[in-house]
Amino acid sequence: MIGIVSSSHYPDDERIFHKQIHTLIDRGLFIYYFTRSDKKINLSSSFIKHTNFNKNVSVQDYIQNVYNIIFTISKIGHVQIHETELLPLFKLIKESHNSTVTIYDVHENMEALYRTFSNRIRPVKEIAIKIRKVREKKYLKYVDEIILANRPVSTNQYLHYGVQPKIIENFPEIKFLQNKNKLDNKTIKIIYHGHLGPERGIDILVMAMLDVINFSPGATLTLLGSFRTKVFKDKIYDLIHELRLSKSIKILHQIPHVDIWSQLKLHNIGVIPFKENELTQENTPTKLFEMMTVGLRIVCSDLLPIRNFVDNSVHWANPGNALSLSKALINASISSGNNNMVEKNKQLIKEKYNWENRKLEYLSLFSSP
């Protein structure tokens, strides 16, 4: 039996539930799944016991409640967590069930995340990051295995603690690979999927659409995701109105991941317009691989984490530059008659960047005791 614990992700999270948990139950393993979310959904089945706590439960109380349940289940051999704030759970588990294998899944470079989103001045940020690292290190002695969802671009901080992490990226399942393109290439249909925040270059993308629409008046852009702040949401809506792009740009709220594929297929160009910052210099956008899988022509900001996976099969733009981005989008639309780049991307998914190539590595973490 295995315990999977998350404190901030949606219960039906694509990486945690659709890939990892389904991989485990496909092997006949029973899962105790704990979440802390306001999303009311029960994912229990014959192989999953799902227990959800309301978001207003403090993390400390959530940890204690989860531990109390785990403590009564003597046959739980592995526990995997998905947030740094849950590390104290491992201390409780190891002090009572020392043989339980503990697995820490790090989804993003947390230092880069903090440096990007914190409004504090740089020295205060660095002090806060140092305090966080000290707290994390305090609990790493209770961790048996570490998973990184992103290949480190700079340094692998966990090597300093004597832990060799396993890199298990969030690649798509090969079953979603689109073998035949049935896209309408006559009209430019662009989609951005992901968080809607200033660090993602959404404002730059909106401005770039002016030139794209001048080139092709019927061009459209879909922004699919959730805004990080109301302030930025208002800014984007105001910008769209100011540039008179309301008929050309559609904003859709985040949808269940199972519905993403059909939404992507309604478009012919996928865009990753990220600005250059601490976060985008470290983390690889999962949406890149989803766009490759569906067979979209792709436009990306020229950033190292993306170049680690693709080179001449996407159209590059200078980060934070609306003119460069609009030119790349127009070039992508002009290349509609040449599917070489699309086919190369699909071949990369088929041969390298798929979840099936990571399954065995993930399952190896649960081979003992």
Question: What's the overall geometry?
Answer: globular
Provide the succession of SSEs: EHEEHEHEHHEEEHEHEHEHEHEHHH
Strand order of the largest sheet: 3-2-1-4-5-6-7
Percentage of helical residues? Answer: 25-40%
Radius of gyration, whole Å: 22 Å
According to DSSP, the number of beta strands is 13
Strand portion, in percent?
15-25%
Condensed summary:
The protein contains 13 helices and 13 strands.
Describe the structure.
By secondary structure, this protein is an alpha/beta fold. The chain has helices at residues 14-26, 59-71, 87-96, 110-117, 122-140, 202-215, 230-242, 260-264, 286-294, 304-307, 322-334, 340-351, 356-364; strands at 2-5, 31-36, 48-53, 78-81, 101-106, 145-148, 166-167, 189-193, 220-224, 249-252, 269-272, 297-301, 315-317. It has a seven-stranded parallel β-sheet with strand order 3-2-1-4-5-6-7, sandwiched between helices. Helix 1 links the parallel strand 1 and strand 2. The protein starts with a strand and ends in a 5-residue tail after the last helix. The mean pLDDT is 88.
Describe the structure using short key phrases.
6-stranded parallel beta sheet; 7-stranded parallel beta sheet; 369 residues; 16% strand; alpha/beta
